[in-house]
Amino acid sequence: MRSLNAFTAFSVVVLVAITLAACTSMTGKTAGENVDDATITSEVKAKLAAEKMSTLTRIGVDTERRTVYLTGTVDTAAMRARAEEIARGVKHVSGVVNNLTVQAQ
After folding, report:
1. How would you write the chain as a 3-class SS string?
2. Phi, psi of 17 (to 5 degrees)
3. Cβ(6)–Cβ(26) under 8 Å?
4. CA separation (Å) from 89 to 17, 59, 83, 84?
5. Sorting pLDDT into bands at 50, 70 and 90, what band is 104?
6. What CATH number corresponds to the domain at position 35?
7. Which residue has the higher pLDDT, 41 or 30?
8. How many domains does the chain have?
9. Which of 33, 35, 61, 99 has the greatest number of C-beta atoms within 10 Å?
10. Contact by Cβ (8 Å): 53, 79
11. Which residues contact 10 (CB under 8 A, 6 or more apart)?
């Protein structure tokens, strides 16, 4: 019975290790990096939504290795700059790529 429990425990450890290795190999990032990027994206989106300017909620946000990518269209250059400022203010962001375009008036 004791050897069966040891085998089961060993099998679980191997399964977890294989799963984590597969996550790393499929995305090229560790599980921790995936979680960090998702957390950064969520925080940026929440801060943009908290702004009073309704246009900022229509901005697409993606994070790859702690670099935030902003996409979409805003009404003014000031809104474009404000969105970038908000993204840069989130903890653990290493850079921001601002691909926002200003809507023609």
Report:
1. CHHHHHHHHHHHHHHHHHHHHHHHHHHCCCHHHHHHHHHHHHHHHHHHHHCCCHHHHHCEEEEECCEEEEEEEECCHHHHHHHHHHHHCCCCCCEEEEEEEECCC
2. -65, -40
3. no
4. 35, 16, 10, 9
5. confident
6. 3.30.1340
7. 41
8. 1
9. 61
10. yes
11. none
CB 77 within 8 A of CB 95: no
Token pair, residue 86, equals: 């908000």
Task: Please say whether the beta carbons of 33 and 58 come within 8 A.
Answer: no
Residue 51's identity, in one-letter code, is E
Residue 88 · residue 96 · CB < 8 Å:
yes
Q: Which amino acid appears at position 64 of this protein?
A: E
Domain that holds residue 61: 30-102
CB 59 within 8 A of CB 100: yes
Amino acid, res. 15:
L
